[in-house]
Amino acid sequence: MTPPPTPPAFRPLFAQIKELIVDRIRAGEWQPGEPLPSETEFAEFYQASQGTVRKAITEMADENLVVRFRGKGTFVASHTRERALSHFFKLFRDDGGKDLPSSRPFSCRRQKATRAMEERLGLERGAGVVVIERVRLLDERPLIFEIVVVPEALFPDVCASLQDSLPNEFYPYYETKYGVRVIRAIEQLRSVAADEREAEILEIAVGTPVLEIDRVAVTYDDKPVEWRRSRCNTRDHHYLSVLN
Amino acid sequence: MTPPPTPPAFRPLFAQIKELIVDRIRAGEWQPGEPLPSETEFAEFYQASQGTVRKAITEMADENLVVRFRGKGTFVASHTRERALSHFFKLFRDDGGKDLPSSRPFSCRRQKATRAMEERLGLERGAGVVVIERVRLLDERPLIFEIVVVPEALFPDVCASLQDSLPNEFYPYYETKYGVRVIRAIEQLRSVAADEREAEILEIAVGTPVLEIDRVAVTYDDKPVEWRRSRCNTRDHHYLSVLN
DNA sequence: GAGTGGTCTAGACCACTGT
DNA sequence: CAGTGGTCTAGACCACTCT
Questions:
Q1: Given this model, what pLDDT does residue A163 score?
Q2: Which residue is closest to D7 in terms of CA–C1' distance?
Q3: Taking CB atoms and an 8 Å cutoff, what residues of chain A touch B188?
Q4: Less packed terminus of chain A by CB within 10 Å, N or C?
Q5: pTM for this structure?
């Protein structure tokens, strides 16, 4: 007759409402950029007070799932170029200057996932993936060499599509063309030596220290949707991280 | 008769109250670890509702300035070893294992600030600084070589004090011994080649790529209190960064 | 002017901590 | 038990946007 190990698990009403709304966003009830129902509408719908709904939506806004505009409404977050650059691009010039990145595609091919890819992307054995290589330039100089790996199941025919559009930022592209929404990314940083190929591409000497950024991008349920390994020349740039 | 460029600047009541309370914490009215007055006490004091005070304190908690415990009260945040490691130490083992860092002091000396130090620490020309060098070990192996620079004015006789205590984490030490509270740190990461000295200390070959972490730690008014340059061997470790 | 999010209030009840 | 923070409500007013 011992009490249950995990007590009845009281969940605040606002947390439940938040989960319900997030589920509906995930299900695609409102597309990125579209307005959500107003707080009062939600309040009536879920039979709660406006303040409770407000708290639910506030948490969603804190997690960048939605964006609020006073007088206008609340909108499903979208991967604009602005957001991609401010939230998901942490490389800055040492002198504080601002430069716009461009990108040069290298290759795009379909293959079977390696063990490492399966593990990082949470795929089953033998699943297909698409591997994209590209160079990102800042100020017309090659700065980053990237290998991007995505599950083929999520992004069918992405190679063919890339021929047409050649987007600079991938996440807005994933969103509009495939309905895949990246909401968070986990990065592991290391210092490694540039190999021959990277050296040539980045126009540096073989063995030059480069910053490796190993990123897994995930969507709503922390489900991985992209694995990306970047090698960055940090001679005149740095990666910015703020700790609280 | 044009309207003022910056409109009257309406500040919400909760923001004003927050600022007032933060000012009082900064002034030392309550020490780290000590309880603040309750929300209802603050509400009465500032002639506001409990909900408004609550919102002010919630923001302070979000910024890790205070810690709340249900049923107990709200306390000024303190640099426990836990917090130092979880919030200000981002290096982890690749295999996910956990290892406790220890540290070996190297040198501690007083000198005049270089131009770089003046700039990073916001010091006047010719100000005195204390430069501390140390090695941090994980699993008994040297992993990080650090140069720590602090203004002498803030930390008088720190070299002598360090002889006695030799703390592993500096921020709790700054807090208890000097009343200096680090609340945020800004880090710039680069990949560089280990020089002779670093190579010897870290037991690696000269020229091995190491991760440079260039950190400025600040206190309440974003005032710099420490500049730290770490060189990390990332052969079996990585720096973790989460993007939203 | 109607509708949106943002602030503020006053009061209620709950969960938890101390005594 | 009283006191704390945590949740929830109902209602008011403000700042802003759009029509």
A1: 74
A2: A12
A3: 238-241
A4: N
A5: 0.92
